[in-house]
Amino acid sequence: MASTGDPLARRYRRLLCCYPRAYRRERGEELVALLLDTAPPGRTRPRLREAVDLIGNGMRCRLGRPASRTVVAWAVLAAVVCGLFSAALSARVAWETARPLSGRAETAAVFRTVLPTANRTRSPPRRRSSGTTPSR
After folding, report:
1. Which of 15, 44, 77, 99 has the fewest beta carbons under 10 Å from its own?
2. How far is residue 88's CA from residue 114's CA, in Å, rounded to a whole number?
3. What span, in angstroms and rounded, lies between the C-alpha atoms of 77 and 63?
4. Closest CA to 14 of 28, 27, 30
5. What are residue 121's phi and psi, to 5 degrees?
């Protein structure tokens, strides 16, 4: 087995943090040794597929149903729905507690302070006289 200074072993151990502590104590070193034995020489990072498998199986093990394949999908769905509700609630609270919008005079004062070149008034666009044709 590789030493603890091996970057691949450290990364595998970090991915094994998805598993419960008791499971890691019992089988962690065996899993890391197996993963290191199957990795080609010179690799410093786990493959994406290995990382996804370790995270998914760790979540399954933490949720208490290691044989179920749908529990991870339900957990992800629940996390997304909770995140959306939290975002909606925080947006509503921000909307309710925000101060009223400023009037035109206050907005103009802010623009004059922030954009000093905006102080000049713009002249309206010139209209062409109806008797002339544009030159090409």
Report:
1. 99
2. 32
3. 14
4. 28
5. -85, 145
- How far apart are alpha carbons 65 and 69 in whole angstroms? 9
DSSP string, 49-63: HHHHHHHHHHHHHHT
Distance CA 41, CA 8 (A): 10
The answer to whether residues 46 and 12 touch, using CB atoms and an 8 Å cutoff, is: yes
Rg of the chain in Å (alpha carbons): 31
Please classify residue 44 by burial: count the beta carbons closer than 10 Å to its beta carbon, then call 0-12 exposed, 13-18 middle and 19+ buried: exposed
pTM of the model: 0.50
Closest CA to 33 of 56, 52, 57, 6: 6
